[in-house]
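Many introductory courses stop at the sequence. We go one step further.
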Amino acid sequence: MSALPSRPTTAMFERSPTVRGAYDKIKRCEERLVGLRDNSENTKTRLIDVRILGYFILHWPKTEAVLSVATAVATCDDDDKLYLQGKLYRDHIFRLFTALRKGCTPVYSTSSRSSFERESLTEPPDSHDTAKVMALERDGYCCPISGLFDTKSYEAGLCEVPEEDIGKRRLVGNTQCCHIISQSINKNLSDSDKSVFASTVWAILKAFGYKTIDEELNGVKIHRLENILTLNIDVHSAFDSLQIWLEATNVPNTYKVQGQTPVLISGYPKTITFQNHAKIKRSLPSPVYLEIHASCAKVAHLSGAAEYIERITRDFEKMKVLAEDGSSAILLDNALSMLVSVTRQEF
């Protein structure tokens, strides 16, 4: 977790009085919390939520998003309302990528269909399995970040590994179909709480300037190839946990591989370029969806939200009953709120 800078130098901060006023309000709130010298869970959570607001203003690349956060902050007339605004983003935007894990069994990527069947598949995919097959073919049956080829596809003769690398590095592994924006957003919408959650997420993203994102990803369109990556298990887990992300460059479809720490991306290339390896045209991952993921990852890392959510997840999975003194009540409250977001059960 990093303290907010005292005097940012972003273009939006320099030219917008609304942004400057909002950020100054956030910074003063942060200073008051730090001055309490209180290490309780409640104060730690409030500090994270306030910093989420500040780092959204500093690190979200879209002007509409920065102004949306700044405007919301301007309406907060006390610290408690600031905490709630930060919690709103923590409970909804970050949940597009993180969720409680309930011990589900991963379904690994395979491609048993014939070449004719694969090439006859049309976009957008209408299911998780179809998206998996099409993305594998598009990505050359390989995770673009780790460079590992899909084991099942290699065994089926669908891809070849570089002969010069045999014996020098690991070449194959189990890959999974990764949704950039979680498919859980469209699941169990008959549940009233889940429906409200989904509606709130789309409303926030539309206010952030992504006006058509709910239409683009509605229903089975969540499986569109623009929202799909082929990733090996470790990379998929880190990507979903906001530990690694892809930052756009000035070159189309080329991204810097970024991580919370250098260790997390050690051995990965500094940049990757998405290409279509299929014999027919296949859509590449959307820079817009990757921008949303990268922005959330950076804010979650700097604010301490990523580490906090991971800790809450671990504590909830271990927790059987509340401590007699009630000390774990705040943890349970946060963990239970995460259950609104459905855990991914298909990979």
